[in-house]
Predict the structure.
Amino acid sequence: MNYRMKLMGMAATAALLAGVTVASAADVEVIHWWTSKGESAAVSEFAKALDANGQDKWVDSAIALGETARATVMQRALGGDPPDAAQFNPGRQYEELIAAGLLLDLTDLATEGQWEEVIRPKQISAACKVDGKWWCVPVNIHSNYWAWYSKPAFEKAGVPEPRSLEEFVAAAPKLQEAGIIPFAIGGDGNGWQIQLLFQNMVTEALGVENRNKMFTDKSAELAGGAEMLGVFEELRALKQFTDEGYANRNWNDTTNLVITDKAGLQVMGDWARGEFAAAGMTGVEDFGCIIGLNEDKPLVSTDGDIILFFKQDDPEVEAAQKRLAQLLISPEVQVAFNNAKGSMPVRADVDMSTADPCMQKALQAVEDPSKIVTATNRFITENTNQQINELVAQYFSDDSMTAEAATASFADIIANSD
């Protein structure tokens, strides 16, 4: 019995017990990894919108940690039992699903809804439009290039709020003296939080052009150069300002250290903003944000979340899938989801005037092509991504590994990347 049949069977049993009728053909199972408090609030906006149409029902399959959720989706899809829809990130993670003909073609919806015209920037569309056909729905613009800090923590330490990572490092000893963890980070999921910090530092050190060249040309020269050695040295220096409990901590618990003023600053994507919002914080008095890790050089990356839809045999399910796809990118749902999620809407024609000061910074930056950074996932495969994760996590935890050795390993990974 496949997963859908199990779901239908359980739903039918529950309905019989309750004395109601089941319309399971229009159930839409969605696998995602939106499990934190802010993320759960955001994804509920999708579920409410679908359920409200009176025809369909959102069947929630939440799996903590992106790599675990993606692995589950790939296993089921390639095993002949795909979910109806699944969250992915823009990039190369799903190229084999397109090649295998497993995804539902959404080109007719995109044409009718004029997605090409309303979605910005064009790098977002490029993630879903492959060989002239649309294979996914982009639902937001996320950027990795952020630092989030506790205003009360800096006030307690008697130091000015930072405008750059460099200013934060200068203030970190004072935070430590005040009994505050200066730098909040977590090491769960093979060290992806550490790699996110690392990738931001890489862009800062190399500049956008050379960073892109390193990935596209598989340049061992750039990957093993003096700038990258400096990145590894700075990463080691930052470690002295974190706490011993970082090793297995997830990102949202790390964010909570900043929310509760126990830590000074966290480098994390703008989904952290959703956690502040869920805690009732506005970004005016409670917390601050640094865009691009340097307020004088604002950057946003074209990361984000997309929803893929898998081919199904039941035409009623396919109709429900398409209704969900249209809802995901509708103006009203875009505003509701992204205000809760902390991300920017992919549509340029929605009113975000009520957004907090941090999102306003991002909305301004995303309109300037010179301030947009292509997401790392567009350049590398999941295999290469995991190799970098493992290297950076090992280097951060193992003080016996030298910066020179780590730089040489990184150069080797890039030179032999997929």
Observations:
- Residues 188-206 form the longest helix (19 residues).
- The chain has 20 helices and 13 strands.
- The first strand starts at residue 27 and ends at 32.
- Confidence is low (pLDDT under 50) at residues 1-25.
